[in-house]
Write a structure and sequence with these properties.
The chain is α/β, with parallel strands linked by helices and 324 residues long. It has two domains: 2-127 and 290-320, Medium-chain alcohol dehydrogenases, catalytic domain (Quinone Oxidoreductase, Chain A, domain 1), CATH 3.90.180; 132-267, Medium-chain alcohol dehydrogenases, catalytic domain (Quinone Oxidoreductase, Chain A, domain 1, Alpha-Beta Complex). 29% of the residues lie in helices and 27% in strands. The strands form four sheets. Strands 3, 4, 5, 8, 9, 16 and 17 form a seven-stranded mixed sheet that branches. Strand 13 (215-220), helix 7 (227-232) and strand 14 form a beta-alpha-beta unit.
Length: 324
């Protein structure tokens, strides 16, 4: 059976025939029909993750069939029994285990869920990583509430766009930042109240002025030098949840602004099985569909990776997996 195998260097990913061993007890074969990219896949190709051993099939997001059952895969493998933190042997599908850029995959049966019926195969494949990450960051960690003012930084990626959809669905007042005016407009088209370009001088004050007040919840995937400015513009008892650090280390963070306002600053990674099920229930209840930016054929995976590298996407970059 053919898989997209990561071989590293300038060759990127190439088609390869890989023989999969029969599933062990508690495992199942999934015939994959769609997969999706995450920034993690790109960072792995750039050597940013330890423990990479070749050959390696990338991909954490996928949806497909087990016999006649339509399924979606929870990519959080071995979370463990503690809903507050994952176990020592926790891993994410796609490293070190073979991932979803393939036509078949073996996964633990406990990680298989019914595909939401209102989603296409591409939409279902786009959901797992960004859906569970956004849900845990917003709901489990961030304690998001209807009517609150929420800021999502760096709108455009899968987690950020899914947080936007979740916030709109629960009648939050959602604001965004981006370096792209086009992405800010797209966010508004999907229900955001507005946004500002974080590269502009005084962007933080302009955002608060535009929003008509400070923020109750911030979902941040960047960190970096802009983080300290956001702390200044939080309401008392506000929460900031960090799920990524694309802008690097945080500088000039004032502890006085944190303790005086009694702010909560939290980290969040992926999600527990309960988070994943609750996310699916929320998506089904509100008939939410992930925002799809680009769709490629499985054998165009390198072209898809180039889009991820550029950062030009708004929503998820997906792979259609053909079957003859």
């Amino acid at each position: 059976m053919s898989s997209m195998m990561f071989v590293g260097g300038e060759k990127g990913m190439i088609p390869a025939e890989i023989d999969l061993a029969p599933p062990k007890d508690g495992q199942a074969f999934v015939r994959l029909l769609a997969a999706a990219f995450n920034k993690r896949d790109y960072w792995i190709t750039q050597g940013k993750y330890p423990g990479v051993k070749l050959p390696l099939v990338l991909g954490s997001d996928g949806a497909g069939m087990i016999d006649q059952r339509e399924v979606i895969i929870n990519p959080s493998i071995g979370w463990g029994d503690d809903p507050n933190y994952f176990a020592d042997d926790f891993k994410i599908l796609g490293l070190p285990d073979f991932g979803t850029f393939s036509d078949m995959i073996i996964v633990p049966e406990e990680n298989i869920y019914d595909k939401p019926g209102h989603l296409s195969w591409i939409e279902a494949a786009a959901l797992p990583v960004c859906g569970v990450t956004a849900y845990r960051a917003m709901m489990t960690r961030g304690r998001a509430k209807k009517g609150e003012r929420m800021l999502i930084t760096g709108i455009g990626g899968g987690v950020a766009t899914m947080a936007l959809l979740f916030g709109v669905a629960m009648d939050m007042e959602v604001w965004v930042t981006s370096s792209s005016e086009e992405k800010i407009q797209k966010a508004k088209d999907h229900g955001a109240m507005g946004g500002v370009n974080y590269k502009a001088e005084g962007w933080d004050k302009a955002l608060v002025s535009q929003a008509g007040g400070r923020f109750d919840l911030i979902i941040d995937g960047a960190g970096g030098k802009g983080f300290a400015k956001m702390v200044h513009h939080m309401n008392p008892r506000g929460r900031i949840v960090i799920y990524g650090g694309t802008a690097g280390n945080i500088d000039d963070l004032s502890p006085q602004r944190i303790f005086w306002k009694q702010l909560d600053i939290m980290g969040s990674t992926m999600g527990s099985p309960e988070d994943f099920q609750n996310m699916l229930d929320f998506v089904v209840k509100h008939k939410i569909k992930p925002i799809i930016s680009h769709v490629f054929n499985l054998y165009e995976a390198n072209e898809a990776m180039a889009v991820m590298a550029s950062g030009d996407q708004f929503g998820k970059v997906c792979l259609d997996i053909p079957w003859e």
